[in-house]
Specification:
The protein is an alpha/beta fold. Helix content is 38%, strand content 18%. It has helices at 23-31, 40-50, 66-82, 101-111, 124-134, 150-160; strands spanning 55-59, 62-65, 90-94, 114-118, 138-142, 166-170, 179-181. A hairpin with a 2-residue loop joins strand 1 (55-59) and strand 2 (62-65).
Length: 182
């Protein structure tokens, strides 16, 4: 059986206790090999070197092989840089579970930015509060998910906000540009 990560209770900020970060626990995780200094993207790229044609991510619509996942991630990185995303910026992602989420996550990580992952089913009020707090530089979403229209909802939130943010619609969305900037 694999070794279990150490368990420490720190109180967490949500309950008003101490910060959730625990230096003792963190150091122990590094020493015992649970954590490392490599990015998830580095691990994916290493797999692409060893087994490029092996399936890395799959959903009901298709797959990404490791080599494809690296290429897609690099494409997203280039797009994010073009949109001005840099280290420390927030990228909001309002997407259902789909394989296109993975290269977005890897690209944001590689740039040193932060992912604010939200449900694509949120309404304008809830999403507006998150948008105001997160202050994203870019947002990714889909045109539709079940009975929801996350692209429209996010566009409305962005229009009501004073914060500049680029909107990227992934996959099949409403007719029009795939990228819209405020």
């Amino acid at each position: 059986m694999p070794e279990q990560a150490p368990q420490y209770t720190t109180g967490g900020r949500l309950t008003g206790g101490e910060p959730a970060y625990c230096p003792v626990w963190s150091e122990e995780c590094y020493q015992r090999g649970f954590w490392g200094d490599r990015l998830l993207f580095d691990e994916v790229a290493a797999q692409a070197d060893c087994r490029p044609s092996k399936i890395a991510v799959a959903d009901e619509r298709g797959v990404y092989r490791y080599d494809q996942l690296v290429i897609e991630t690099m494409t997203v990185i280039a797009g994010l840089r073009e949109l001005g995303v840099d280290r420390g910026d927030v990228v909001l992602v309002a997407m259902p579970p789909m394989r296109e989420f993975v290269p977005i996550l890897l690209a944001v990580e590689r740039l040193g930015a932060v992912v604010a992952n939200v449900l694509p089913t949120l309404g304008e009020h809830e999403l507006g509060r998150i948008f105001k707090l997160a202050a994203p530089r870019t947002a990714f979403t889909v045109g539709g998910y079940r009975s929801h229209r996350p692209a429209k909802t996010l566009h409305n939130v962005m229009s009501a906000s004073q914060q500049p943010c680029s909107l990227v619609i992934v996959g099949d969305g409403p007719p029009g540009p795939r990228i819209a900037s405020k």
